[in-house]
Specification:
Two copies of one chain form a homodimer.
Chain A (H helix, E strand, L loop, with lengths): L5 E4 L5 H10 L4 E4 L4 H7 L1 E5 L4 E3 L3 E3 L10 E4 L9 H4 L1 H4 L4 E4 L6 H9 L4 E14 L2 E14 L4 H16 L4 E3 L3 H21 L4 H5 L2 H20 L7 H11 L7 H7 L6 H14 L5 H23 L1
Parallel strand pairs in A: 1-2, 1-6, 2-5, 3-9, 6-7, 7-8, 9-10
Antiparallel strand pairs in A: 3-4, 8-9
Chain lengths: 314, 314
């Protein structure tokens, strides 16, 4: 069976790392890069990873999505705040028969994409990793790295393709796990992302500061409990022990600034729609209210608006 | 009928202003002062007020509560965070037959005092004013000034004494209104204090910044609605139109930093117990949950703890 080809939309800390590892393993990989295009065309990728450092030269890099060739798998690793651009980015790499693998935070992207490209062509996954882009074409991957992913629609044919992608990722050195319950995977990640991404901005605190304060831990637990209740109502049956496990796991993490906090501190748009608004709306449709999560969203919207106003004054 | 005598416990922006106005009107007024004792003993009070500026010399000022004479009315205008000191502060000025008028923020102080001095000797009230202590013995009162107060226990004798106190306050130039429903007065004030004091710290924003953002107004409305529901459950029947009126009123206010925000910015203890924890607990006893108010409290506790830690490092 021939190796799959990959397009990488969003060549940052996630897409750059995984794409470079696939290319190193001999796959045809095509990167869409905006700001780093010229640098990567000349110098390739410089990957520092706790899985092993490497350089990758002769990279297939493109400045415009229109120049991308059709690929078997298009990995979508843009921030969700850029998703209004997708209708212009996906047609060329997805071609007639390619599929898209959404490696983005939050909820709702697969559903939205399915309406445009068809449910059978959509896969999604969650990444558990600490990785940053530290310079042009330069990724520093310091911890974890696992992808848990699966088809948005669970037909046998889709599960077969997911298994093939999973085998290729693992063969390329990426810890990948295939799941037949993407909804559950997404909600379990939200049990961390909603409290810890959200409160890290609302409280201006890294994980260790949050976990070190009893009032904050109470609040984190209340929010995780809301997310857990919403997950159940939305068909994702997660054992209640994961509420406490999520807190304990964070207690043993190294002090960490969430991606949302890094975005906010850098004056970038936060992924509020995907990580907060969509789950709140899904829960509401399922008859469950999430008052503290909603307050977190209202708080972050206020902070984002203020940040935008201050940014526009500069 | 002879004029009542007054003791002032907490000679700051509230106690200093009202006490000085009562003394100017010829009442026997006795001030307990800590930090400003020496200054006031020598120079008296310097009152700047939109009701009229004045100086007051030959002030009866005391450094220790043990030196205060028994007075008819002891006005309690300390911050509630100092209330653990009350058992040492009240016995001398209240004497055998004096009463206490609690002009503090929040909920629960009258109930707690009643257990110690007897329900018949407790009055309470809310102050609606913009006033600051800007230097030793120097008060700047820039807007409003009304006191709404009443007996904690509604016997006829207590209502008669409240009416007499009200007449004296008004005769001294203070806008005072007597109420036979102190519980309602307190909860209506909480409809402003909880959202606007609390969020001004949690969001680091003055009233105009909050009221200028739609997400924040939604959050303010949600919290006021929780307070209104709690008030109803606690026996304070407030017309629902006050939810929107409270927002509209704030919209037309001058940009204002709440007392809680000023306390926080100055590194002082915030009145979280009286303004947030006690109302949440009262609502809970009445079977009503206040999730967003509770989250606000959890957030502010986290911020207070962090501030205390940072303060102790200096």
């Amino acid at each position: 069976m021939s190796k799959l080809s990959y397009a990488i939309i969003g060549s940052g800390a996630v897409g750059g790392l995984y794409g470079a590892m696939l290319a190193r393993a001999g796959h045809d990989v095509h990167f869409l890069c905006r700001s780093d295009y010229e640098h990567i065309r000349q110098h390739g990728w410089n990957i520092e990873s706790h899985w092993g450092d490497f350089q990758l030269t002769d990279v297939n890099v493109y400045r415009s999505a229109d120049d991308l060739p059709p690929c078997d798998v298009t990995i979508l690793a843009l921030k969700t705040v850029k998703n209004h651009l997708l209708s212009g980015l996906l047609p060329k790499p997805m071609g007639q028969s390619g599929v898209v693998l959404v490696l983005q935070n939050g909820l709702g992207v697969e559903a939205s994409l399915s309406e445009h490209v068809g449910v059978e062509r959509v896969f999604g996954g969650c990444c558990f990793l600490c990785s940053n882009k530290v310079g042009p074409g330069h990724i520093r991957h310091i911890d974890y790295g696992r992808i848990v992913f699966g088809p948005y629609s669970n037909s046998d044919a889709r599960l077969d393709l997911a298994a093939k992608i999973g085998d290729e990722l693992n063969a390329a050195g990426i810890e990948a796990q295939c799941s037949d319950d993407l909804n559950l995977v997404r909600w379990r990640k939200l049990m961390w992302n909603i409290p810890f991404n959200g409160l890290s901005v609302a409280l201006d605190a890294s994980t260790d500061k949050m976990i070190g304060d009893d009032n904050c831990v109470d609040l984190v637990r209340d929010i995780i409990t809301e997310v857990h209740r919403a997950a159940t109502a939305c068909g994702a049956t997660i054992d209640a022990s994961w509420i406490e496990k999520t807190i304990d796991h964070t207690r043993s993490m190294v002090p960490y600034d969430s991606s949302m906090r890094l975005d906010f501190l850098a004056g970038r748009e936060m992924e509020l729609q995907a990580i907060l608004a969509n789950p709140i709306a899904a829960a509401k449709r399922a008859g469950v209210s999430m008052p503290k999560t909603e307050m977190l969203y209202q708080t972050l919207r206020f902070m984002q608006n203020r940040s935008n106003k201050e940014g526009s004054k500069k």
